Amino acid sequence: MNTKQSHFIRAAVLDDAPAILAIFQQGDPFAVTANRQDCISLLDVMEWLETATDKHPMLVIEAHGEVLAWCSLEPFYGLPAFDKASEFSLYVAPEHQHRGLGKQLIHYLSQHQDDIGFTHLIAFIYASNVRSQSFFAKQGFEQWGLLPNIAQNGSVKEDIHLFGKEFSEPS
Fold it and tell me: Model-level pTM?
């Protein structure tokens, strides 16, 4: 699982929940102004970790005992026809951004695609999070759709962009 000597990717565990929450809360520079992060608690993150499976993992990049980034795959839709598609979330601590960690997680997932069993990854990205949209585009994701004004926190409404990437069928 080594990606660099000092970094390694592993399955997230319950002890990672505080770090995952902290990274999530810092993950979108516009979340603070819209109070988007306020509705996610430590208990929510613990539930995410408890529901992770081999087919829908939650992974972290760790260095020297510190969680630097995390990602998760969740079922995209509740019908069997969509079993090979996963909703993909990716967050990197601000002080560790621009170091290739997000790219490492995507590469790790593509290298383990056969074990995980996905053919499509879909990311939901706030319209205001232009940096995230740019990152995903550089990783080969394309904008597949737009959900206008679907996200609402208080009086703030925002569009969500759907970015997706199709991978070859696992062998």
Answer: 0.89
